[in-house]
Amino acid sequence: MTYVVGVTGGIGSGKSAATAEFEKLGITIVDADVVARQVVMPGTPCLQAIAEHFGNQLLTEGGELNRKALRQRVFSNPQEKEWLNKLLHPAIREEIISQLEQADSPYVILSAPLLLENGLEKYCQRVLVIDAPESLQISRTIQRDDSPKKEVEAIMKAQLSRSERLKKANDVLNNDGSLEQLEQQVLQLHQRYLAATVAQEK
Ligand code: ADP
């Protein structure tokens, strides 16, 4: 059985920075955000269903999903939003499982901002939380995205609180220091996960 480590953390906590380090060590990363885009690429059953339901004006000239138009359509319409979620959530789940099964590194990482909120931890042997003080989450995100503080705070409100998330962690990476410190912690965790993978095979 594939040994899966779920990686999560609030916006700006350093998930991408951490998973990039695991990737350098040869570990396959399955990223829920990437999967969410893959399932609506041109030619997919989901994109076809969306076009049939909402009309072709939801597509760009190149035949891709116009995300902004879709967001506007479901933004203030709970029924349409539910329809969309019922279509996308199972498709995303299926694709995540398939990518986890196909991964061929000693263990595999499932990275998702909403891992715990969406119940994806059930596919994981361990949950690693990337943790940083909220003030750092905000300042790093503002610097990365050039987005207004209010927007970042709104996203944080839709995510689990820091303490709730930490309660569900098996491992915690404290990302309140330098990038070198992050790298060191990733190396230590990597050794532990490799050992756990070997133990599981015995
Ligand atoms: P997430 O994926 O959790 O939203 P990122 O990994 O993108 O967060 O990190 C947010 C921003 O902060 C990025 O620009 C990243 O390079 C930077 N960052 C992350 N960790 C550190 C750190 N320990 N020191 C300095 N900058 C960091």
From TrEMBL:
EC number(s) given by UniProt = 2.7.1.24
The GO biological-process annotations, alphabetized, read as:
coenzyme A biosynthetic process
| One annotated GO molecular function | dephospho-CoA kinase activity
Known pathway: Cofactor biosynthesis; coenzyme A biosynthesis; CoA from (R)-pantothenate: step 5/5
Q: Which residues form a coiled coil?
A: none
Q: Where are the transmembrane segments?
A: none
Residues involved in ATP binding: 12-17
Q: Which domain of life is it from?
A: Bacteria
Q: Does the record bear Kinase in its keywords?
A: yes
Mention any one GO cellular component term assigned to this protein in its UniProt record.
cytoplasm
Instruction: Give the main location.
Output: cytoplasm
Alphabetic keyword roster: ATP-binding, Coenzyme A biosynthesis, Cytoplasm, Kinase, Nucleotide-binding, Transferase
Pfam families found in the cross-reference section: CoaE
The catalysed reaction is: 3'-dephospho-CoA + ATP = ADP + CoA + H(+)
Subcellular location(s): the record lists:
Cytoplasm
**Function, as annotated:** Catalyzes the phosphorylation of the 3'-hydroxyl group of dephosphocoenzyme A to form coenzyme A.
Tell me the protein family, please.
Belongs to the CoaE family.
- Listed name of the protein: Dephospho-CoA kinase
Task: Provide the species name.
Answer: Idiomarina abyssalis
What's the source species' lineage? Bacteria, Pseudomonadati, Pseudomonadota, Gammaproteobacteria, Alteromonadales
**Gene name of the encoded protein:** coaE
